[in-house]
Amino acid sequence: MVPTIIIHGGAGDIPDGRVKGKIDGMKVAVKAGYDILMKGCSALDAVEAAVVAMEEDENFNAGYGSVLTLRGEVEMEASIMRGEDLNVGGVTLVKEFLHPISIAHKVLTDSPHSLLGGEGAKLFALEKGFKPIPPESLISENAKRALEKFLKHGEFGRTEIGPNDEGGVGTVGAVAIDSQGHIAAATSTGGMSGKAVGRIGDTPQIGSGTYADDHIGGVSTTGHGESILKYCLAHTIIKLMENGTDANTATTVAVNGMTSRLHNTAGAITLSKNGEVGVHFSSNRMSWAYIRDAQIFYGINPGEKFCDKYEPEK
Amino acid sequence: MVPTIIIHGGAGDIPDGRVKGKIDGMKVAVKAGYDILMKGCSALDAVEAAVVAMEEDENFNAGYGSVLTLRGEVEMEASIMRGEDLNVGGVTLVKEFLHPISIAHKVLTDSPHSLLGGEGAKLFALEKGFKPIPPESLISENAKRALEKFLKHGEFGRTEIGPNDEGGVGTVGAVAIDSQGHIAAATSTGGMSGKAVGRIGDTPQIGSGTYADDHIGGVSTTGHGESILKYCLAHTIIKLMENGTDANTATTVAVNGMTSRLHNTAGAITLSKNGEVGVHFSSNRMSWAYIRDAQIFYGINPGEKFCDKYEPEK
């Protein structure tokens, strides 16, 4: 199989001023994942590496730069799934770690459970040697401004698609297929600006934010979390592909079907078991990128597809 | 549409000594739900009423009688879904309330979010007037004994199917269709004996534990939570029905498919939009019951189907 990695950096009304930062950050992240694949490592390690890069980058709503709850705190969540055996790991209501996706990966490999939340996620992370950081160190200026704007003007529960949202669009995700034909998918987010304390979105819910099955393909989604989970967006795309629909059509039909039924927007990235790529969003913008055969394809506006040559790190 | 309600009281290796208590408790619960339907109320109110009855009954692993975490505490979760508009409500990591399903219902009607966990779920419940109770008051003697046995003999993560488990088999759920043809589904659980603090299972994850769509049908599942969520069991059944499979075949194919792929057991109850009933379990036992046309059907062993006359309360 030709190794391929595809990532997204969030769907929504991304302001013009934030386009460049997202595209630059995505190129760094997709290369980080592709480098792992090129070393012969697993799809699972590749999607983690790509998501880790975006969690470190304040241009994305995940890890550092996550949006804030009504109480002004960061509460992050992430999930990762291995298509070979359907094993999954997820965390939610995480406050004190830079990389929720790495804790989620550890849940997958080391816990009898699939999803840990709040205090339990923290206890598990500490036990596994993850270093806690002061929760305030995850808060960016953009995230503070986004909460201030939300408190003045926000329509509750819709900030992922609000036109004035500076911090809310940037859930990140990655899907990869490695040379062995194994598929993995991962998603990480800070949620939505002004969310209630304790709100759990689509990202850690398997079948909503993330899904991977070597027999079919892999998906990561972004957009209005409550709509995505009501529609089980990732699993809907998977089931369409299982029934013979190609990856791009399945992604388009499911995303548009969700928006038509629930009147909110979303986006998704998809790889089929044959390596077909699917990218679609019903929002105004979604940043995405993929690398295959030493070419980086990327875009952020509808219908857009740029191509750069991939230069491996020396 | 002929109003119908179907419920389950949990799948697993239910010991002989617990069969009668479960069947008696299920008859009370299914009648409670059916009485609501007969008054012309919604399917949503009916499934809540049936689940509330089982949350009060220590014969079931939900509400009072929930199993305990490794730390000896109750951490409950529940979800409810309205098929008309796909709206959902869920709570997880709840410690101080007898009826998680009623808080979940309130999340559905009163929150911009779909799932609240831990401290956030508690804050929401208090704000909505739910009365907290001492967490210890939810602990039954059976649950204590189940944890003791688990600590001595338990294989971690498999207690829902352990032969010695006295408290772990009894996740509860209900699916109803009302005279208007609207469908709702609800599920509530204490999880698995000896689970890690902060473990979130399939029950609050939409598409895994619960799903309802007026265009297709409704499902509630029970069994090994981590397997159910990896397989998105409820949504898998829904998608089979959407593609023309009848309710009972869809339930059977999906439950057996999960067990074949993931080597753990589960059960599910299903209603199609046309009122067809589906019941299947791959575990040794699952308690289930439904009422339609003033007849109560019920069973707990494979292939079993008893019938009583339904006598409405005077």
TrEMBL record, chains A, B:
<feature type="binding site">
    <location>
        <begin position="199"/>
        <end position="202"/>
    </location>
    <ligand>
        <name>substrate</name>
    </ligand>
</feature>
<comment type="similarity">
    <text>Belongs to the Ntn-hydrolase family.</text>
</comment>
<feature type="site" description="Cleavage; by autolysis">
    <location>
        <begin position="170"/>
        <end position="171"/>
    </location>
</feature>
<dbReference type="GO" id="GO:0004067">
    <property type="term" value="F:asparaginase activity"/>
</dbReference>
<dbReference type="GO" id="GO:0033345">
    <property type="term" value="P:L-asparagine catabolic process via L-aspartate"/>
</dbReference>
<dbReference type="InterPro" id="IPR033844">
    <property type="entry name" value="ASRGL1_meta"/>
</dbReference>
<feature type="active site" description="Nucleophile">
    <location>
        <position position="171"/>
    </location>
</feature>
<keyword id="KW-0645">Protease</keyword>
<feature type="binding site">
    <location>
        <begin position="222"/>
        <end position="225"/>
    </location>
    <ligand>
        <name>substrate</name>
    </ligand>
</feature>
<comment type="function">
    <text>Has both L-asparaginase and beta-aspartyl peptidase activity. Does not have aspartylglucosaminidase activity and is inactive toward GlcNAc-L-Asn. Likewise, has no activity toward glutamine.</text>
</comment>
<dbReference type="GO" id="GO:0006508">
    <property type="term" value="P:proteolysis"/>
</dbReference>
<comment type="subunit">
    <text>Heterodimer of an alpha and beta chain produced by autocleavage.</text>
</comment>
<dbReference type="InterPro" id="IPR000246">
    <property type="entry name" value="Peptidase_T2"/>
</dbReference>
<dbReference type="InterPro" id="IPR029055">
    <property type="entry name" value="Ntn_hydrolases_N"/>
</dbReference>
<keyword id="KW-0378">Hydrolase</keyword>
<dbReference type="GO" id="GO:0008798">
    <property type="term" value="F:beta-aspartyl-peptidase activity"/>
</dbReference>
<dbReference type="GO" id="GO:0005737">
    <property type="term" value="C:cytoplasm"/>
</dbReference>
<protein>
    <submittedName>
        <fullName>Uncharacterized protein</fullName>
    </submittedName>
</protein>
<keyword id="KW-0068">Autocatalytic cleavage</keyword>
<dbReference type="Pfam" id="PF01112">
    <property type="entry name" value="Asparaginase_2"/>
</dbReference>
